[in-house]
Design goal:
414 residues; 5-stranded mixed β-sheet; single chain; alpha+beta; two-stranded antiparallel ribbon
Length: 414
């Protein structure tokens, strides 16, 4: 390996005398300064240096005709000195030249991708609310400049508004960063949200015990508004999420099932809910009540709200501290009590299959199997909530003899 004091004349003479030399030669005066013959025979100067972590870097300084030896020595010493102090001048200058991706840019791109994937309205609404309230003040920041300390500080500040909203917002920012790192042009190299220690959230996860269902059903029967009363009964008999139940339209109601076109997870998670005997009876009651109270409404559970359907289902007077999701957990528990296997229970609840469960990916229950399972659960619930004579009366007619609501009339407003 040749090493001598670089001058323009010495370098030119060396390559003339060694026309086949393709290796590096080194300057004896400045450590790390080297030269090599490029593909077209042109002498090119470069610097090789190490960072504080031991990583070796190399940077071309220019052709011999473009940069003087003095300039090359000065640049080589700058790169080497910065490297010993933990700075990488190449990376810093590259970051300055690259177009910056702000947190706001990344959020907009992520939101557009969610819409393209068919994310549900609830997901989009929740993200927009948390972004506007807690993150938008940081949207002009280059994501490459956001550190672990930054997001930990933000998360602690969000915690003043409650652990749940703080964790939800942190997960949103984490998702935005992941999308930016995978899909966008940025000099950021890691997701700083990895440093967040999430708050412990209250784990209420309440259910109504089987022995308390009759008392609960009796309390629901006392709700004066028949539409709201039917809404709560449907929640228990189907396990639907509150929005999936509240937004049912008559056009979604078929002879054997109710179609839910845009549930949690978006349009790709659309599913059909089997209509059981008890559910068919309630739908008929809702048709009668709706035609009297909200004639012409397209919704099964209409209300005098901006959206035309029930949006605030709490009934503190009759069933205090009972949420729609309590009934979803109760329904899942009753599925198992009624002898429905966990895989069919997942189907009835429209839960996404566990991708790590190979068996779950193999199983595709038929519509008839799901309908039979739903009927079994519904009859099990009836047995728990109604006296035996009423139970027998409700069971007397087979499913196909239930008269379902007639075709809906054109919508004319609630």
């Amino acid at each position: 390996m040749a090493r001598f004091k670089f001058t323009a004349a010495a370098l030119t003479r060396f390559f003339e005398e060694n026309p086949t030399s393709n290796g590096y030669i080194w300057d004896s005066e400045t450590r790390g300064l080297g030269a090599y013959r490029a593909s077209r025979g042109v002498c090119t100067l470069f610097v090789q240096y190490r960072l504080a972590n031991g990583q070796q870097k190399k940077k071309a300084l220019g052709r011999l005709a473009e940069v003087t030896i003095g300039q090359a020595r000065a640049l080589a010493m700058d790169y080497a000195l910065a490297g010993r102090h933990g700075r990488d001048l190449v990376a810093e200058r590259k970051a300055v030249d690259e177009p910056k991706t702000t947190l706001g840019d990344a959020y907009l791109a992520y939101t557009t991708a969610l819409k393209r994937r068919g994310a549900s309205e609830n997901t989009m609404r929740l993200n927009a609310r948390n972004w506007s309230a807690y993150v938008s003040r940081h949207q002009s920041r280059d994501i490459a400049s956001i550190t672990r300390a930054d997001v930990r500080s933000w998360h602690a500040d969000w915690g003043k508004h409650g652990p749940t909203v703080a964790n939800q917002t942190a997960r949103l920012v984490r998702a935005v960063f992941n999308y930016a790192l995978n899909k966008l042009t940025t000099s950021a190299t890691e997701n700083p949200c990895r440093a967040i220690e999430y708050f412990k959230e209250r784990n209420l996860r309440r259910i109504i015990a089987a022995e308390s269902l009759a008392e609960w059903w009796k309390a629901v029967d006392c709700i004066e508004n028949p539409i709201r009363r039917g809404y709560w009964q449907v929640l228990l008999l189907t396990g639907l999420r509150k929005e999936d139940a509240a937004t049912i339209k008559w056009v979604d109601v078929n002879s054997t099932h109710i179609h839910r076109p845009n549930p949690k997870g978006g349009a790709t998670r659309a599913f059909d809910l089997p209509i059981t005997q008890p559910l068919a009876k309630i739908l008929t009651e809702m048709r009668e009540a709706g035609s009297c109270m909200f004639p012409g409404s397209e919704y099964v559970f209409p209300a005098a709200s901006a959206k035309g359907h029930i949006i605030c289902p709490r009934e503190e007077k009759h069933i205090p501290k009972c949420s729609p999701h309590d009934l979803r957990r109760t329904y899942a528990t009753l599925c198992i009590q009624a002898g429905v296997d966990p895989y069919t229970t997942k189907m009835l609840l429209n839960h996404a299959p566990d991708t790590s469960d190979v068996t779950a990916r193999y199983i595709i229950p038929s519509a008839d199997a799901c309908r039979a399972a739903a009927e079994r659960v519904a009859q099990h619930i009836l047995a728990l909530v109604t006296p035996s004579n009423e139970d027998a009366e409700r069971k007397s007619a087979p499913l196909n003899t239930h008269e379902l609501p007639a075709d809906p009339k054109p919508y004319s407003g609630a």
